[in-house]
Amino acid sequence: MARRSRLARVAALGLLGVLTLTGCDLNNEFWRFGFPEGVTEEATAVRQLWTGSVIAALIIGFIVWGLIVWSVIMHRKKGDELPRQTAYNLPLEIAYSIFPFIIIAGLFFFTVTVQNDVMERSDEPDTTIAVNAFKWNWQFVYPDTTGADGEPVNTVGATDEIPILVIPVDQDVRFEVASADVIHSFWVPEFLFKLDVIPGNENGRDNVFEVHPNEEGAYVGRCAELCGSYHAYMNFEVRVVSADDYDSYLAAREQGQSTREALESIGQEGEATTTRPFRVGDGYYQRAAD
Prior knowledge:
Blueprint: H1 2-21, H2 29-32, H3 41-74, H4 90-119, E1 127-134, E2 137-142, E3 153-156, E4 164-168, E5 173-179, E6 184-188, E7 193-197, E8 208-211, E9 217-223, E10 235-241, H5 243-254, H6 259-265, E11 275-280, E12 283-288
Parallel strand pairs: 1-5, 4-10
Antiparallel strand pairs: 1-2, 2-3, 5-8, 6-7, 6-9, 9-10, 11-12
């Protein structure tokens, strides 16, 4: 009994230690457990779900490992006498049935909560951008602007040019995605989020989402749905800039400047830096930068 009591105290102290450590800064690399950091508020919520799930799994793992060690030590062979046989243990069997359901219910609850937070949309987003996918490139339209040709400002990719999507930092940015042909998927790895672009559901509930970027920078974007021969090269770049630079960029585009010229006018690289076109035979197709 004394040995069993000591083992119980050690297990309790280990569990308390894990729970105490979870109160530390969960934003450092260790607590991400290999998960990407993300550059949006929504990405932070997804990463915290991952961290919590791993910690819960570790706690359960330590308990299981402790029980295995305890069984090995306490029930090792001590002689030739046959130990007492137990046909069944009703309380233990009930616990075996209830605890997994509690664990599953907890994971389900937190997953749905984070999913709802990530998919939540504001009544009046700061910026709305229409994303049009087609085989095999992207078009980004800023519907609240008017270009020199009288049409909304837009950027469209070509076989020899990576399209650059410019968005402001620290603002709610809504994407209304649509497909001109087959199912594509709008994916920015640093957002920790991707959304399938379903044709025939333009601006529908399933084709709209928002992000709140909190770090400036350039981030590669990809199509994450097998959509045809050149799916692997259907890349784009997201350029997150300050709110003032974003307004200056749109103003330059409205005056007739190209995407390259407008980006250079605000001190940004005129071409994509995270991905580049890839030459295949006589044509160009996009590929990620080395």
